[in-house]
Amino acid sequence: MISKMAKTFAMLVGWVLVIVGVLNFFVEPIRLLPAHGVFHIAAGALGIWAAKSHAVGYAMWVGIIGVVLAVLGFFGLTNVLDLINLPTWINVIHLVLGIWGLWTYWAATKKPAATGAGPAGAM
Prior knowledge:
single chain; globular; 5 helices; mainly alpha
């Protein structure tokens, strides 16, 4: 069974990434490179699709990629061959999104605590 929280995460993040990707072509504060917009649209479409049956894995990968991009950005390592050059405020957004994704993944895969008397109560 897919976690409802993971499904909500995948659908919400998916739509936000699609919207951000489209806005990348038109709105100046988030306008970076066309590849940046295309990547966000593709990642968002994947999230919308993943919400049906692969939401937990999507949350994990969004978490990993978000945290990696943030760490690289904070250390000034995102300007690779002039393909990615992210301002600090985007690094913060990537970090928050990454932590949220990893937390969602962790919560969705956590096994509930066993209930009952346990070994001491079985006589």
